[in-house]
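WARN  no MSA supplied for this record, continuing single-sequence
INFO  ligand: zinc ion
INFO  echoing inputs
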Amino acid sequence: MSRRRRAFTLVELLVVIGIIAILIAILLPALNKAREHSRRTRCMSNMRQLTIAWLLYIESNKGKLPGSNTDVNAHPHDWVDAGDGIDALKRGTLWPYVNNWEAYWCPNDRIHYMRTYSMNSWLDGEGPAPVATRLSQLKFPTSTFVFIEEMDPRGYLINSFMVLPYPSAEWVDIPAPMHDRVGLLAFADGHAQQWIWTNPSTWQRTGFNQSVPKTDDLKDLQGWRGSGPWPPGRVP
Ligand SMILES: [Zn+2]
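INFO  complex generated
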C-alpha cells in the first residue's frame, strides 16, 4: 500500500503565518503592559524599602532625620553621597539598612547609572529652613513625601528634590518619566503610591528652575512637601 505525504500548500502556509502575526499583534501590547506593571511594582517596592530604612535610621537616632542632601563631607548624616558609583551609596547613612544597590534604582531607568530616587529637600536638606529635622515635627507623615523619582539632565542625581512653597509657579527639579505619566512617590508613614501627572511639561522639561503654564502637578507636590495644606493633593 502506498502512502503519499500531504504537504502544506502555499496558501495554507500564508494563512498560518497570518494567524500567528495577528496573535502576536494582539498579545504584544498585553505582554508589554504586564511587563510595565511588574516593573512598577518592583519600583514601588524599592521606594518602600528605602522609606522603611529611613524610618529605621530615625528610630536608631532618637527621632532625628537622615539628611536629604548628597554631600557627606558637609553633612555626615546625608542618606547618600554625590556620585554615580556604588561607593556614593555606600557612604550614605541608609546603606546599613538597605545594602542592595538595586533598591536605589528604578527597573525602567535607562538614564541614570546608579540611582533614580531623590529625597524631599525640606526634610533636613538644602532648603533655607527645613520643614523638619525630626520625625516628631511632621504633622501629617501620610501626606509628606520622602522619595520621588527624579530626572537630572546632568546624567546622574545630585542634591535633593526641591519643591518651592505655594504659590510659586516655578519648578526647580524634574519628576522622572520612568513610567510615562505615572509618578511614584513614597511617604513618611512608609506607604508608596502612584500619581498620574496631568501636564506633559511636568516631566518633559530639560532644565531646572522653569515656570510652566499650568501648575496643577506642582500644586500636588507643594501640598506634599511637608508643611500642608492637608489632606494631600491640590492646593485650592
Ligand atoms: Zn520607577
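DSSP finds four helices and seven strands in the chain.
INFO  checksum written, moving to next record
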